[in-house]
Amino acid sequence: MIINIFFHNDEFVATLVLFFTCELLSNRLNSPAWICPDFLGFLLFLVVPFIQNPNRLPDLSNTCIPTAFDPFAEANAEDSGAGSKEYVHIRVQQRNGRKSLTTVQGLKKDFSYNKILKDLKKEFCCNGTVVQDPELGQVIQLQGDQRKNVSAFLTQAGIVKKDHIKIHGF
């Protein structure tokens, strides 16, 4: 009765029973501690209600197995080239020690990258350059971690909407 209070969630109990039953059947739990009468009694206490009423068992056929989360998956996707989905990607790259590099890619080709770079350099008192990349097109590089500054500058200047900016990095 006390255990029913703690295990009122049928899906949790069914998952627990399914796990221990599979483990016992596959002989993974062949230690004497798992086969003790108390544990078998507890397992039967959990299994008997489901045997009496099989409709209580949840449908586990569409259960998803969790996979490792990759925070850079969207940046590494095949369609993440310059101008993909009209996003502007702002990234930071660690150089050495405390030195870092901010890159801006995905701006529309209609804009003059050199004029934008000139304004960014003047605004943030940093050096920078425009690099021609074979995959990504033209990329603006700035010294230091300027991600928030560049994002604010691009939205205030009306070059890009805030919804179309993706900021990557640590």
From TrEMBL:
Chain segments annotated as transmembrane:
none
The record's GO molecular-function terms, alphabetically, read: mRNA binding; translation initiation factor activity
> What is one process in the GO biological process aspect for this record?
regulation of translation
- Presence of keyword Disulfide bond: no
Write down the InterPro entries for this protein, in alphabetical order.
SUI1, SUI1_dom_sf, SUI1_euk
**Keyword flag Transmembrane helix:** no
For the SUI1 domain, which residue ranges apply?
88-158
Record's signal peptide: none
Sorted keywords for this record are: Protein biosynthesis, Translation regulation
Similarity annotation = Belongs to the SUI1 family.
Report the protein's function: Probably involved in translation.
UniProt xrefs under PANTHER family = EUKARYOTIC TRANSLATION INITIATION FACTOR SUI1
Its protein name is SUI1 domain-containing protein
Native source species: Lactuca saligna
